[in-house]
Amino acid sequence: MNFDDLTTTSGEWLRGNGPDSDIVISSRIRLARNLAQFPFITRSDENTRNEIEELLRDRFERISDVIQLTYVPVNTLNTLDQQFLVERQLISRELSEGHGARGVAISEAESVSLMVNEEDHLRIQVLSSGFSLPGCWKKIDEIDDSIEQHVTYAFSEQYGFLTACPTNVGTGIRVSVMLHLPALVHTKEIQKVFQALQKIGLAVRGLYGEGSQAMGDFYQISNQVTLGKSEQQTIDDLQDVVPNIIEYERRVRSAMLKDNRPNLHDQISRAYGILQNARAISSEETMHLLSSVRIGINLGLIDDLDISTINEMFIHTQPAHLQKIHNEQLESAERNAARAGYLRKRLSRAENN
Amino acid sequence: MKKCRQCAKPATVHITEILDGQAQEIHLCESCAHDYLQPADENDSVDNAETVALKLKEVANEEDLLELDHIVCPNCGITFREFRSQGRLGCPHDYVVFQQELTSLLENIHGELQHCGKFPKQAPDSSQRQYELIKLRNQLRQAVEQENYETAAQLRDEIQTLETEQAEAGSGKED
Question: Which end of chain A is more exposed for a tag (fewer CB within 10 A), N or C?
Fold first, then answer.
């Protein structure tokens, strides 16, 4: 897997061709698993970690009839390349900051990634575009079953799949959906959404940033409980509530368009203009403007740009991606200039299509 | 010009956080803002450790917890105290060793105590053998640390034997 090639592409899940992808960027399911005959990661010394990695790498090859994977040993990567994978959501920050043998197996379209030796021995993740949890589940279930034919998972009848942290024990499943909710943020109705979600035990967090204020108005909703509920019930919880949020956001967007079209159009056009012409721009400002342009496309106020391009730009304007595109380390001010350069280039090409 | 709240450089990024319905202004310099605004970790691992520590305090008082701290897992060597402070267990057997303490914790976190999701398709291998392997590995690690290389070599052989047995017993599995 050549990282330099990756800088010009993006994962399939960013294509923006899934259901409801005006509001839902992506759906994600991950499963946490441990091998029964080894201690959990914190009590695994260097040799043990090597053994675990070797074993899992071998098993990944054995399931190549189910899925083709390329293994990347993260401990051999430099910081920039590790950060690159984090930005692409293929590995977590925890994996990049870990020590000892660890890595990730990635599928061709980047929709499947399997982390080795992160918080648990194995973390399987499937990502797909739009609101598409059933499809994600079918795929990850199949991969989990195939691996399970060649290993023994740590499991008890009482507590289910045994994980390093008790917050994950049971199904070991994390089901999440990433939403773009600029209208609800603008009218401050997003607070109502948070409260409703908290009542049914779902967690919300801003994708970029802490607390409830998210840069770019991206939010991730996920389950918190993993014991006492089946995988299907957990998925159903989100299947039931997300359509309401989608509906709500769409309604508020329509209302904004109806009541305030000239101002909205102006704001969006200015955002587009800055992105097309700036000579230096921070990632915070970029997120903010891309968010406006994104609604612009959804509402039909911008018609010369694709959703997939915008989705890609959220990833490619991040620090490690920029530096890889330029093939060199860049200081903050240089990055801001590089970011602006990338945006100008990308957006002028879009216009010419 | 406001100062960055982390490092006292001039603040150029101003963030409004909304917590519990209250708006709070945070002023940061560009590099501290960069750290502050890192993409939320999908796995929330740091949060998990804190959650566990917090929830343990909710279900037991400090005195009780201190009394439990010395409990050790015979297989991986972790103490309850270590588990408390890092929020992570040492091996699958800990779910047995710390069962009593974990029960109230799990109930607090999940509201339930019985797994009702997917079961592995294959019949599980003898758990005894798994735990034995974990214990032997721990002993091997200690032997090497203490430079007891003879003992270490013996332990390595034992591990090898057990793993071969396991592979043979589970040979119906390997396609």
Answer: C
The residue type of A236 is D
The pTM of this model reads 0.84
Name the residue ranges covered by the structural domains of chain B.
1-37, 55-115, 125-174
Gap between the Cα atoms of A287 and A294, Å rounded = 10
pLDDT in tens, B121-142: 875 555 667 778 888 888 888 8
pLDDT digits (tens, 9 = 90+) for A109-156: 899 999 999 999 999 999 999 999 999 999 999 999 999 999 999 999
- SS3 of A45-93: CHHHHHHHHHHHHHHHHHCCCCCCEEEEEHHHCCHHHHHHHHHCCCCCH
Q: Rounded to whole angstroms, how far apart are CA atoms A243 and A255? A: 18
What is d(CA A220, CA A197) in angstroms, rounded to the nearest whole number? 11
Measured N-to-C along each axis, helices B99-110 and B45-59 cross at an angle, to the nearest 10 degrees, of 110
The minimal CB distance from A167 to the residues B37, B51, B127 is found for: B51
- The Cα–Cα gap between A105 and B132 comes to 30
Are A203 and A243 in contact by the 8 Å Cβ rule? The answer is no
Q: Which tokens hold the place of A321?
A: 């991606």
Enumerate the residues of chain B whose CB falls inside 8 A of the CB of residue A200. Answer: none
Predicted complex ipTM: 0.86
Chain B residues lying within 8 Å of A156, measured CB to CB: 92, 95, 115
Residues in A 18-37 with any Cβ partner in B closer than 8 A: 28, 30, 34, 36-37
* pLDDT, tens digit (0-9, with 9 covering 90-100), for A259-303: 989 999 999 999 999 999 999 999 889 988 999 999 999 999 999
Positive or negative, the CA dihedral A55, A56, A58, A63 is positive
Q: Are B140 and B156 in contact (CB under 8 A)?
A: yes
Nearest to B121 among A145, A157, A283 (CB): A145
- Residue of B6, B76, B118 best to disrupt the A interface, most CBs of A under 10 A: B118
Q: Find the mean pLDDT for residues A91-110.
A: 93
Question: If pLDDT is split at 50, 70 and 90, which confidence band does B52 have?
Answer: confident
| Cβ within 8 Å of B, A 200-229 | 205-213, 215, 220, 225-229
In chain B, residues with a C-beta closer than 8 Å to the C-beta of A211 are 17-19
Identity of the residue in B43, B111, B133 whose CB atom sits nearest the CB atom of A225: B111
Joined tokens for residue B79: 């103490």
